[in-house]
Structure formats: C-alpha cells, structure tokens
Amino acid sequence: MAEGDISFDPNRNYDDETLSLQREIEKEIAENQELIGPMQPIEELIEHYAKEDQIYRHKLMDLRKRHSHIRKVRGDGNCFFRGFGFAYLESLLTDEAEFARFKDIAVKSKDNLVALGYSQFTIEDFHDTFMDVVGQVEKKVSVDELQNVFNDQGISDYFVVYLRLIVSGHLQKESDFYSSFIEGGRTAKEFCSQEVEPMGKESDHIHIIALATALGTCVLVEYMDRSGEICNQLVFPEEGARPAVHLLYRPGHYDIVYSLTSD
Amino acid sequence: MAGSALKRLMAEYKQLTLNPPEGIIAGPINEDNFFEWEALIMGPKDTLFDGGVFPARLTFPSDYPLSPPKMRFTCELFHPNIYPDGRVCISILHAPGDDPMGYETSAERWSPVQSVEKILLSVVSMLAEPNDESAANVDAAKKWREDRKQFEEIAKATVRKSLGL
C-alpha cells in the first residue's frame, strides 16, 4: 500500500479478505506440490539452486555424501508430521518386529488420550483412520500404494491429526519433564492446544522429541541453513537407536531424505 | 471428506442431545442437512443478557472438524464480539494461523478436538464477559468501555426483544 493511501472503510470486512487471500495462497501451493512427492535424486535438488548460491550448493554436496534421495513434502505447516508419518510407515513395511511394537503402541495410544480427558467422539474418527493406515502397512502394500494413501487429503490429514494427538498426549502425560522446554510460561495443556493440536502449526524440536519418544523410535534431521559450511545433524531423542526416519530441514520446512547406506 | 464430517456431526448431535449443557440447545435445522445447525443460547444468569434467548446459526465446512464452523446470531445482539450482521468473532472459531483480530496467544483456538459444545460454551462466556480488546462491533466496544449504563440499557432491550416482548 502506498504511503498516504491508508484509508479504513468500516463497511469492508478486512478479516474475511485476509482469510480468503490466505486460502488462495494455500490453494496455489496445493496445486504445485503433492502432499508426499515422488522420490528424486538429491542432484535434482542441487539444480534448483542458482549457481551463485554457493552456500546451499555446497551444503547439498555435503548432504549428498550421506543421502541419495529426497521426497518432497507439501509445505502446509504439517510437513514434519506428514513427512515423519510417511517415512516411518515406509520403514515399517520391511521391519516386522518394529511394526509389531509400533502397532501395539498405536492401539493403546487412544486410552492414554481418554485418560487425559479427551471425549471419545472427538478422537475416535482420527484413531480409526490412523489404524486403517497402519492396517495398510500390515498388509504390506507397496511404497507407491502407501504414497497414494498419504496423497489422499482426507485420510492424510486425519493421520496427521492423530500424530499431533499422540504428541499432545505424550507432552501432557510427561509434563513434569517437558515443562521447562515450554516457552511463555504456559502449561503443557495450553501449549498443546495452541501449538500442537491445531492443524498447520509448525513443529519445533519439542514436537520431534515428543513424537519419537512416544513411539519409541528415533529421527535424524539434517539442518540446512545459511550459517556454517556443512549440514548439522541432530538425532531425536539424543540417546536413541538407529534413526528410522531421516528428514531434511530447510528454514520453515521438512522433507524426507533417504540414507545412502541401507543398513 | 464430507463423509467424515457427517459422521462426526452426527456423533456431536447425539452427545448434545444426551447430555445438553445448561442453557444451550443445538442441532441440525433439518436432519437432511447436518451442515446447517440452529442453536438457542440462554443469556447467562446474573449477567446483562440474563433471561434472553438468542437464536444462532452454525454453518459447518465439508472438512469439519479440520476447519471450524462459522457462527452467526440471527437476532439483534449489540455486543463487542459480534459483528453488526450477527457473525460471532471469538478465538475458538479461528485456527492459530487465522489471526485477523490479533487474539492473545493464550486464547483458546480451533483444533480438531474442539467441538460444537466447546464453541457454544465459549459463546456463553463471551456474552457474560465481553472482550473489548478484539472488537468486531466497534460501537458496542466503545459503549461497553465508556458508557456502561447505556450498554446495559441496550442489552436489557435486546433481552426483551429476544423474548418477543
């Protein structure tokens, strides 16, 4: 808006205009990026960055030493949860022991939420959908079929909601431990209802640690920003076992990456 | 997605019918369309709106409960958090990213584990305690702040009118 052109029209509904503009931007992103994209060689990503962008190109070369492929995830504020969900289930397709352990936790997770005071009717649809997707993994669908499931917006979003609820349940149950990591003097319950449960809220370290811990698994994140020479790698939780999920973080966004060695 | 929304709305309707919260009646206007509800909200006791019965409409999106419904009073209601056309403007009807009114970060927000019941209970609290920090009706907020007596008179008249008196 040009200076001196600031006029307030009380009859206009600015709130609605802001919201509809936001919806349009979301729609544009949705048309250009699948919820879970195809596997691509990391080299294709390098080509996206301009030759002049030496820092990122350099870091991608560094990433290339450890990871061969990337799978892009739509940037809608749910990318950590959706990316984690897909990559974890993909790893479970070929790991029966780990699958059995995970399924047991998944089945019981609903009781934890009910014990915390969530009404049955507000959580059961999400849990049902979540278990349906878990059932697909049990049937050993192909990776492509799993990708299709995650690209079905309805199912995919319900799956994400439930992962958010698992994090919320874990943070509330273990609130003594997590309270010192929660900013703004909020209780675990307040933090969860503001930063975890609403769709589209972006994830921070606390979400990653809580999800990995609640499911008894481990996540490796490669951090790629404009500082330093190489990517920083962090494993959540720190003392965790071999990471089942590898993610690439670029400011504000997570994508899935695949390790060079398939050990 | 509309199938999941319908299932959830039917579950919520059942819940509200079996355990109705005090001072609230809500349900679909027509059972052929679960996405349009009518609610009747009693003005909370010992507040300016005590004794009134205020009808409102709730319109649910096809991806409910991922997205919140919209709510609009269909009667006259002069209140800082209700637009002059009746639309209700409280934080629980917005996800944290949708922040046109600059709600406080501590305010309750929409998430898929909220419900019609929680919304209506928040609306009852809103009637009891207007929030003039995020005003949808600037005139009402101003009167509430600067001329409480006149605000009270308008509220009383609204209560009488809501009862058809």
Automatic annotation (TrEMBL), chain A:
Keyword Hydrolase annotated: yes
Reactions accelerated catalytically: Thiol-dependent hydrolysis of ester, thioester, amide, peptide and isopeptide bonds formed by the C-terminal Gly of ubiquitin (a 76-residue protein attached to proteins as an intracellular targeting signal)
Upper lineage: Eukaryota, Metazoa, Spiralia, Lophotrochozoa, Mollusca
Enzyme active site: 76, 79, 253
Family that this chain belongs to: Belongs to the peptidase C65 family.
Provenance organism: Littorina saxatilis
Residue intervals of the OTU domain: 68-260
Protein's name according to its UniProt entry: ubiquitinyl hydrolase 1
Source species, domain of life: Eukaryota
Keywords tagged on the record: Hydrolase, Protease, Thiol protease, Ubl conjugation pathway
MF-aspect GO terms: cysteine-type deubiquitinase activity; ubiquitin binding
Site (Interacts with free ubiquitin): 209, 223, 225, 249, 254
GO biological process entries: protein K48-linked deubiquitination; proteolysis
Enzyme Commission code: 3.4.19.12
Cellular component per GO, a single term: nucleus
Automatic annotation (TrEMBL), chain B:
Keyword set includes Cell membrane: no
Lineage of origin: Eukaryota, Metazoa, Spiralia, Lophotrochozoa, Mollusca
Native organism: Littorina saxatilis
Protein name: Ubiquitin-conjugating enzyme E2 G2
Domain of life where this protein originates: Eukaryota
UniProt signal peptide: none
Function: Accepts ubiquitin from the E1 complex and catalyzes its covalent attachment to other proteins. In vitro catalyzes 'Lys-48'-linked polyubiquitination. Involved in endoplasmic reticulum-associated degradation (ERAD). Required for sterol-induced ubiquitination of 3-hydroxy-3-methylglutaryl coenzyme A reductase and its subsequent proteasomal degradation.
The protein's Enzyme Commission number: 2.3.2.23
Entry's Gene Ontology BP terms: ERAD pathway
Family designation: Belongs to the ubiquitin-conjugating enzyme family.
Catalytic reaction list: S-ubiquitinyl-[E1 ubiquitin-activating enzyme]-L-cysteine + [E2 ubiquitin-conjugating enzyme]-L-cysteine = [E1 ubiquitin-activating enzyme]-L-cysteine + S-ubiquitinyl-[E2 ubiquitin-conjugating enzyme]-L-cysteine
GO MF: ATP binding; ubiquitin conjugating enzyme activity
